[in-house]
Amino acid sequence: MTRVFVFGIDGAPPELVFDKWLDELPTIKKLMHKGVYAKLNSAIPPSTIVAWNSMISGKDTSEIGVFSYSCKDEGGNQRLVNSKDIKCKLIWDILTEHNKKSVVLFVPLSYPVKKINGCMVSDFLTPSIGENCAYPAELKDKIKKLGNTDIFFDVAVGLAGHKGLEIDILLEKTYEMTGMQINLIKELIVEKDWDFFMCVMIGTDRLQHMLWQHFDETHRRFIKNSKYKNALKDYYNYLDKKLGEILELVDEETVVIIASDHGMIKQEGKININNWLIKEGYLVLKEGVDTKERKKFSINFVDMEKTTAYGGGAYNARVYINKEKAGNNYKKIREEITKKLKEIPDDKGRKLDTKVYFAEDIYKDVSDPECPDLTVYFDDLRWASNPDLGQEGLYSWKTALGADSAGHSRQGCFVISGKGINNKGKIKDIEIQQIAPTILKLLGLEIPKDITVKHIEVV
Fold first, then answer.
1. Which of 2, 234, 236, 387 is most buried, with most CB under 10 Å away?
2. Are residues 253 and 284 in the same domain?
3. Residue 407, strand partner residues
4. Is 406 helix (H, G, I), strand (E, B) or coil?
5. Cα–Cα distance for residue pair 8/70, rounded to 1 Å
6. Which residues have C-beta within 8 Å of that of residue 19, sequence separation ≥ 6?
7. Are residues 240 and 100 in the same domain?
8. 341-352: per-residue pLDDT in tens?
9. For the segment 427-449, what is each residue's pLDDT rounded down to a tens digit?
């Protein structure tokens, strides 16, 4: 009976994995040459929590019901999203209904865990080992034996806590975290009875955000002769070696998938989206809000009676239009804002390749109040969005959470090899949503009617 093993590498870019570093990644290279591989078009936006869940549901962002890391609670206040906010079935929900067993480890937005036919350990949004992070709960005992539980789920406390770490400490903690996670994978892949096994390595994401300028000579803040110039490549080498060790533990009935949720791209800087909206007259803050104090933007700062639009988003911008104020002029205002956004140059006056998406063009369900009217990729994500207050002018290089030297890009990696998989080599680009129906088909299950994307032809 066919089994499917998915090894997720968060943010792995095809430019590095398929090209620049491939000869130094023998495990991945072997899988590519024996099977099928492609560039993967990520979700819109290519956010970690959105994209992984698009991959394992076959659904777009609006069907998942999560657009960013925060949402409004019943009282209208912002809170961190969690697994309970997901509106659709994920692949292990479908497998459970068909009495097939899953092992799910570290998949973004799996905290708090839920009961499935199998076992689950949650992701980097887990507050601590004391929370509902493992099903069955006895798995916590295994985790505690592996080492430092303070960094088992992520290298630092809090969302984006890694941005505050010195690089030496970041590297040390990333290897320590990854080592513990790999050991749990090895243990459960042998101990548990499973049809589907999925794990996601978050360490690549943590290092790429902070190390890009140390090796990319085209980066505007490139650090020549940095002692960290090979640090990211060395981590990929380490991960490839560990993947090889894991694959020695699976049998010939197993189909292996290597996938990333998105890629990475150098970050030139940040467009202060709310500063721009204020300057253009679309956003008006309440009296008394100090725009010089550096702080995260909040809807509570907005004078909604006078405001036409406000912004959010980090690597991409989200623009929300106040429909009550816009009234019948909604489409005209949306077009006007779009045209102006595309005219924003970089800090040296050069034209940017900015892409703006209307909600109804990319999402099936635009009724969710969290659904942005406009999703903006400044310079195709080479420039990020900064919604926070406290930065002067249009451009900045830091947010309230810190700085990045790279951001998320539109394309990730997909590799599939193993039992019954054709040796087609490189195929045309795939959509991230196609992976879920492909897995279901490999496991011999009928694809649910509400998954409307086509599976990938790999057999």
1. 387
2. no
3. 265
4. strand
5. 24
6. none
7. yes
8. 999 999 999 999
9. 999 999 999 999 999 999 999 99
